[in-house]
């Protein structure tokens, strides 16, 4: 079951990734939504890493068999693969933002001015992501190499989980607003959302039964799935309306 869920999870991101690559255009995707999504997923990744640190260490030193490790760490593997997919989308979003804007930094018309403003937002988002990632990695390394006690590590993991939940609660709001204002699907992939939305709730159940995890690990996906459902309905509406 874990392998099936992991496979479907990765497949769900393929339509969005391919759409960005094929169209070479990321217009219509909110930079704030991408920042929040990446931050939430990163916090979730480090949350489950800290909570399952003992299992990971035992697997690395060969104390447990590979099948056992794959079974017990499937939740961590799923989140890591999802983080890789989201990171890829963020990269493609930046790469395929209208090139004449990010190369020339000039605006030649009203649309150009709008794109230029958005590109400046993207630059700020990139800096924010670098700072955020540096802080999380630093705190995690300190907790490991300073040999924090179990309670302190669980507390830090809880902070990551709560932070992830907070970002997840609002990560789709900028995209919902942007889609509503543009009244267009833009570069968003409806097939991806059709898979991801119900998949989020399935993943909630699966993560909830994983050893060493708690509600701070799966609440992210519950909140995200609910808001993504709203975005999906909005995209379907505009897709049919603009035909």
Can you tag this structure with a few keywords?
11 helices, 243 residues, mainly alpha
Short précis:
It is built from eleven helices and no strands. It has 243 residues and is an all-alpha fold. 32% of the residues are buried.
Mind sketching the topology for me?
Blueprint: H1 2-23, H2 31-51, H3 53-60, H4 66-72, H5 74-95, H6 99-104, H7 110-145, H8 150-170, H9 173-182, H10 190-208, H11 215-241
Supply Rg. Answer: 19 Å
Give me the number of helical elements: 11
Q: What ranges have pLDDT less than 50 throughout 5 or more consecutive residues?
A: 100-108
Broad shape: globular
Number of strand elements = 0
Q: Tell me the number of structural domains.
A: 1
Describe the structure.
The chain is an all-alpha fold. It has helices at 2-23, 31-51, 53-60, 66-72, 74-95, 99-104, 110-145, 150-170, 173-182, 190-208, 215-241. Helix 2 packs antiparallel against helix 5 and helix 10 (190-208) runs antiparallel to helix 11. It is globular, with a radius of gyration of 19 Å. The N and C termini lie far apart (39 Å).
